[in-house]
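Predict the structure of Transcriptional regulator, AsnC family.
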Amino acid sequence: MRIDRQDRHILEILQTEGRISNQELADRVGLSPSPCLRRVRALEESGLITGYRAILDAKEMGLTLMALLHISMDRHTPERFENFDKTVRAIPEVLECLLITGQDADYQIKVIVHDMEAYQDLLLNKITRIEGVTGAHSSFVLRTIVNKTAIPIPDQL
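Done. Here is the predicted structure for Transcriptional regulator, AsnC family.
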């Protein structure tokens, strides 16, 4: 799908203000409501917009310990990776899981829990019990400097 300046502006706004009304969105991008809504629906149907979410305050929910884990696997086979991927997707404390290269690890996982006791339970009773996991190295987040979900919109699409 080719997008123009107005589509790009719509995408920028919706990334940070997903609950904006169509009327306000139309006003901000310089369109009337009907064409604006048609553009948003076209962006959704094209797959550029994949969903809308509420972002919760983790601290208000008592989730105060965030950690990054580097996970090493014993074998690099499709079956091992598929099993790990499937298992880690089902763990609610896992916020992000990346298959990585350039490190001594195969995966980087970002998790959030209530406290160190909950982290220990997660690590020892869930993560390290996944078949093929041979190592888990933890780093604890002291402070979040940047935490955004908005991605840059390329000039050319």
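Residues 5-46 form a domain with the Arc Repressor Mutant, subunit A fold (CATH 1.10.10.10).
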